Amino acid sequence: MALDYEVPQDKRLLYWLGDKLIDYRHPVSVVVLLVTAVFAYWGFQLHLVTSFGDLLPQDHPYVKIHNKYSGTFGGANNINIMIQVKEGSIFTVETLNKIWKMTEGLDKVYGVNHNQIDSIAHRTVRYLKVAAGGTMRAQPVMLEPVKTPEEAANIRRIVHNAENIYGLLVSLDDKAALIRANFIEGRLDYQRIFTEVNENVVDPFKDANTEVFVAGEPRLYGWVYHYAGDVFFILVITYCIEWVLRWMYFHDWRGALRPTITGLIAAFWGLGFIYLIGLALDPLMLVMPFLITARAVSHAIQMHDRYYEEFEKSGWHKRRAIVAAFAELFVPTLSGITTDAFGVLVILLVPVVMLQKLAITASWWILAITISEMLLNPIVYYYLKPPEPELVVMRERGTFRQWINRFVGVLLTSTGKTITVAAWIVATLIALYFVRDLTIGDPTSASPLLWADSPYNVSHKAIQDKFGGVEPLIVVDEGYDKDAMKDPGALHSMEKLQRYLERDQSIGYSLSLADIIRAVDSVFHELEPKWGVIPDDWVSVGGLFFIYFSGSPPTETAKYVTPDYTTSHVTFFCKDHKGENIRRIIKETKEFISNSEINELGVTLDFSQEGQVAVKSVLPEPIWEKAGPSWVVGSQASGDAPFKAGDHIVKVGKLDVKNEQEFRTALMERADNSTLLDFRVERGGEAMDTTVGAPWKAVFKLAGGLIGTLAAANEELVRNDALMNFLGFFTMYMIMLFTYRSFAAGVYLLAPLALSNVMVNAYMAANHIGVNIHTLPLVTVGLGFGIDYGLYIVSRTIEEIRVRGDLEDSVREALETSGKAVTFTAVTMVISTVFWMSSNIRFNAEMGLLLAIWMAISYVGSQTLTPVLIVLFRPRFIMKEANRAPAMTSMAPQRAAR
Amino acid sequence: MKLGLWNSVAIVLGFSFLVVFLDEYIVKPWRHKKWERKAASGDKEAERLLKMARSAKVSDE
What we know:
The complex is a heterodimer.
Chain A: E1 6-8, H1 12-23, H2 25-44, H3 61-73, E2 78-85, H4 93-107, E3 112-118, E4 126-130, E5 136-140, H5 149-160, E6 176-183, H6 190-202, E7 210-215, H7 217-227, H8 230-250, H9 253-276, H10 287-313, H11 318-345, H12 353-375, H13 377-383, H14 389-396, H15 399-411, H16 414-435, H17 455-467, E8 471-479, H18 488-501, E9 507-512, H19 513-524, H20 538-549, H21 554-557, E10 567-574, H22 579-600, E11 603-606, E12 614-618, E13 624-627, E14 630-633, E15 648-652, E16 655-656, H23 660-673, E17 676-683, E18 686-693, E19 698-704, H24 705-740, H25 743-766, H26 775-785, H27 787-804, H28 807-834, H29 842-873, H30 876-879, E20 888-890, H31 892-897
Parallel strand pairs in A: 14-18
Antiparallel strand pairs in A: 1-20, 2-6, 2-7, 3-6, 4-5, 8-10, 8-19, 9-10, 11-12, 13-14, 15-16, 15-17, 17-18
Helix pairs in contact in A: 1-11, 2-9, 3-24, 4-6, 6-7, 8-9, 8-28, 9-10, 9-12, 10-11, 10-12, 10-14, 10-28, 11-12, 11-13, 11-24, 11-26, 11-27, 15-28, 16-25, 16-29, 18-22, 19-20, 22-23, 22-24, 24-25, 24-26, 25-29, 26-29, 27-28, 27-29, 28-29
Chain B: H1 5-40, H2 44-55
């Protein structure tokens, strides 16, 4: 049947489009179904994969250093296995042989870096042995399995005398030993590593007296994958409950089916697209697809509700009802989808590949809802049998509708309006109080991905308690030239950095080349403590290194120092990875590096005067002499130096420096990249350029290991969080501007959303949920989704005021009709999202709860604050539509004229 | 029982068919009779609505 009845003139095109979709239903259905089938096929090819590199901001300087040295000095993917005995010590034949076999087993696990295994039973862990004739050699602690108690006692003696083993790989009470292995990032298969560690290293060695604990990032993700199957249980439960709720709400199974079709088609398109662009599903991001599908279902519920309403209004005319529902909801639905899709895209700002991929796929998935919800919607309705009039009539006057009517009646009284505004003000103030504690990074020492009593966190805590710290921060000491690490100054700098940072409460212990040289020097001098120092000349240092490393292949020594002795590292084992602790440790490290460099330049600086970096005094060391145009460290006093007391340093390299922060940053940046340091100095009112040869042989560079990479991710989040929030709101505001052609519309819709945002952040702060690369995308998606509810209410108010003329009357009608569907949608979404709380993955459970809270607050805002603000302030973009019912027009005469 | 992809699909499909069956053959007839009883018991509003709904001519086009 053609469009031969009157339709509102301003929506004539939309009515025509809806009508044409029904006319061409067969070809449209076939095309959509074929495309969906292809996407579905691709979707089923997807696997759960987490790419560690994708979680890192690859352009961040810390990550560049991490990538450069993780293959030799150790990366962020360490597994720590602690074997602990309840009675006695580990130095028995039985336990030492278990350690031997566990180390062998770990060496066989897929992806392990064979040269980066630390265990008293591994060839790379050595001690110095004095052999016949006074020669010394570094020999593995265990060369073979132990056979007698005497051999076990001998190993205990070796361990107790080795500074690089006792307390680090064997606990000080002799009850536990640590086996640590680093995994090659390109070969991280978390599921396989999890299984192989269980089969080869853990299960065969547990008994009544022996406990085995396993922690570390690959293990953590292994558990996450292990629990990922929970998602099926949650999806099945959610599906069944949602079906029942929709069935009860619509009084018809078709009401349950139709939103399912929308959700499924969008899901196939989304999943297929993820596969098409070469991505995979991350088990920690499974809440996201669920949430997007829930939004698709939500839009479909709105449409289905409107279809019922239009069915009665149109005199039980199915086709007219379908077309009217499509045309009348086209604008709010499309605005909602567009806002969600573009809102998510702001995540692209964060230079973390995983987040950027997620932004693109989520945005596409949301846009796919336009196909399933808008293009296919009239067609599906047309194929389905219309609802029975009895059902529509009775449902419209049912209990749920009566509750809504009663609530709206109370809300729009003077008291109701006052209470609403007052309640929102109070709630916002309380939220603002709590939101101050929101942290970037992880706020607890346990992994927030799993529950505190999960096997992983129990193991993690047991190892931390026994060994003080297991999460590595690698500070690389990069030499300018080969043999730089034989420079006693470089080794002293490492030692000073260790002593400086070890004062921090979050550092458990540290290890560097300086520790090795001191230990070797001590052994070389018959273990006399006074020789446990760094020699003060290159020749002695080189000799000691030769003694220690001469029996080891370069692949083994490379974990301490590069084969040409250019670069080494200081590794700090931290007690936790709390965001605030990481920030503090990194800040302290930078302070140390900068202070050392200033000190080695032989000056003290005065930063007290605003806008000036003044040279306070010149130290007697080092002695400077001119070498061509540059100053270099010399041996004979020339009586001159590149700096004089009273100089003002105005430029380092190409960067202007006006304060302490700028100077320190510029100096570190310059020193990182060049051995020549250019300064512009003002002396006696004249500016002069001076070039100084760096008086150090190597520079410390941040930072590798888990702590280094987390620091990089946290810094990127801090840098982009505010901008992302601003752009998210700005994008939504612009879409509101175009949708309603009003500058005020965005304010009315975004104000409740901003307040919801504050409240959700306050909830996160109060419940110790930090903003990290996992929580950020979900929080951003929630931001966009919150606006959908308001859109339906405002659009319906405008629609009603054109006919009714009275604002309050129109708002009431909007709340009683669209508001009813919004209420139902919100309730079902909150209920279904809450089921994520049953997940063994704490992250998914907390995100589910967080999103449920977010949707609940956004819903309450759209049903209370938005309408009350509209009634109180009578915005022009709504009032100008009063009594401007669109003229009716028919398409039929035009067709006849043609 | 640990749920995987295919047994999850089987459960949700089975559940959906169960709901359709319950709706068509049990709940709808029961609801219909309930309204009729309500109208017969002298509820004027229910009687009016039922009459209105029954007099409706549905255009399935």
